[in-house]
Amino acid sequence: MAATSSLADRLEDALPQTQCTRCGYADCRAYAEAIAEGEADVNRCPPGGAEGVLRLARVADRTASPLDPDCGIEAARAVAVIDEAACIGCALCLKACPVDAIVGAGKRMHTVVEALCTGCELCLPVCPVDCISLVVASGAATGWSAWSAEQAEVSRSRYAAHRRREANDARTALAAAAATSDAAKQRAVAAIARARSARAAS
Hints:
This protein is mainly alpha-helical. The chain has 5 helices and 4 strands, in the order H-H-H-E-H-E-E-E-H. It has a two-stranded antiparallel ribbon. Strands 2-3 form a two-stranded antiparallel ribbon. The longest helix has 53 residues, at 149-201.
């Protein structure tokens, strides 16, 4: 188990950390663990491209194979752009962005911080007015040629912070629901007590 975990760590280090889910797994860590456990091949990461496949193959001591077309193709790195005039401020893209690269508030215009966007495309399907598009940000460079180790580390850190915030929000929501439930129970008990008192008085 420890050896598998160590291998997963090294495989995760070899991934670009876009958290795009195109590999078929929830995030880069989940894909790394699947490779380490022998459940996934090393050719399922389009953002990493052919170079990424070679990196993963070397770490996993496997034979590299062409990128799986079912996961996508190697392409230039793109970033999301929001048509601010069309944005309705629904905030759905804020929740979808795994690295919190979109800023804004409910009923207010949103915008993408280009330097932080990984081009994961997860914001596209959730936009109800199709006001998000992708623009090429790396010229002709693709795969790891369009993405640096430093950018990958920033994205991994931001994704970890995003996950922590989601967990905290979930705990807060549960606590609020529990408090609401307790208050409702207390009101019900008080109402029953009043009804009993009224019957006794009559």
